[in-house]
């Protein structure tokens, strides 16, 4: 276990006031949806009728920092969601998938011969600053009230709209072809999957996302997040404690 993983597993819990409002930093597990996490926490708070929402969706295959707000603090979700994000991850060069990640199987392969480290490092420049990108066809973006991934799974094609986003940092941290590790700092609404797919096309090659972790949102850090299982166990243990006596002291 790494030091950061150990820190995640040794959090202490304050005296929460969920109705008034709590901001919870959660390490979203792999293959969980963001709504899975919200539902798990909401169910753990029953029979309290407390609003719970998240500030910024993470794809099921991504892990890392998910901000949850409860009670009156849910009114500030848009504020937290608008903050700058930081991600680390791994892309695979030499292949592409329809979803731009590992949700779907490889549909095309490309040769890696002649692809140099210098070219890979240089290819980050066009994707730094204010850029335009299309959301993945397999995404939670709604078109005419329906999620794109629902349409994609039916085999329907949908006209996608360009988005304007800002990427302040796109750093290559390791090259071990076909794998390339990266760190990205970007604005709200940036699709890392789309960025990686476009990165591969810029190299006249293919690329898809194999690992993604959100490490920061605004000033909130993954290293300060709770594990879902630990938080749920704590909330359930609080329910099992006897209620304080209201009898007068003699």
Automatic annotation (TrEMBL):
All residue ranges annotated as the Pseudouridine synthase II N-terminal domain in the record: 50-192
Active site (record annotation): 59
Listed EC numbers: 5.4.99.25
Top-level enzyme category: isomerase
Catalytic reaction annotation: uridine(55) in tRNA = pseudouridine(55) in tRNA
Protein's job: Responsible for synthesis of pseudouridine from uracil-55 in the psi GC loop of transfer RNAs.
Family: Belongs to the pseudouridine synthase TruB family. Type 1 subfamily.
Name of this protein: tRNA pseudouridine synthase B
Gene label: truB
